[in-house]
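Render this sequence as a predicted structure.
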Amino acid sequence: MKLRIEKNKIIDTDGREIVLNGININSPCILKFQENHDFLEDIRQIKKLGANAVSIPVCPAYFQSRDNYCEEILDTIIQTCKDLNLHCLLDWHAQGNPIKGATRDPKNFIDGYLKYDANLDIATKSAEILSSRYKNEPNVIFNPFSAFLESGRNDYLEATKILLKIIRKNTDSIVIISAVDWPQSLKYAPFEELRPEKNIAYGIMLYFGENLGEEKKNIIKIKEKGYPVIITEWGYQKNNPKEKEMSGGVDDYAKPIGDFISRNKINSFAWCYHPTRQPCLLNSWNPNDLSEWGMFLKEWLNNLKTGM
């Protein structure tokens, strides 16, 4: 059933509130071509863990380098999600400042293309292609830009308006407006500038950091303004976190954030169903070999279903 937004809630065509409790897979092309792994099986396992949605990081490098990206990758993913009754977030995994053309990790190339390519022309092209191709898919949600880094309010707002205008030519499906900076912040959420635009949600990656308390307040503020929030990534890495924001544990991060999410009916996608892509839900590709973070999430999702 196609989702829409009514006040600060996501609802289905029958008027029932839907809270997205999802999980991210790794970039499907990295899974397929670098790791020789079946990403569709990951989606099936995510369903078994108790999620009702999956997030797909659409890697700008592979999107540009493979002529049949949609046919070979996304079509099969979206059909599998429909078969499993899962909602599907298409996350254009660009990170940087599209107005200034600054990309995160500018030395990271795949097949000659920047992995996180934040180029505005590429972002607008992807927004046009994806929103046109999947405009009638009832289980699809769009995130046209994953992370606005080193972007002041003016650049952030300009890029957001450009991408939103392109998508709205094709579909009225839910669109996520991502946050800025790293750790991410919702401080620039453009409520007034985007009114009376419908089916808008605000997205944030909510990791362990100094601004965690402030962003929880921002999330509540946004809900009070009449918009839903979608946490596009959350999680922690117990062993050897590659970034300090991915540190933390059950007691000082996962449990309080999980309680905050469930208590306030916040939509969320845990990162990441993968044994090395931190924060890792798995220790190995054995689906029963969950990390501490994975075991916590499995129990948390089960408690949501049982109402505990």
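Summary. The chain has a mean pLDDT of 96. Residues 67 and 153 are 35 Å apart (CA to CA).
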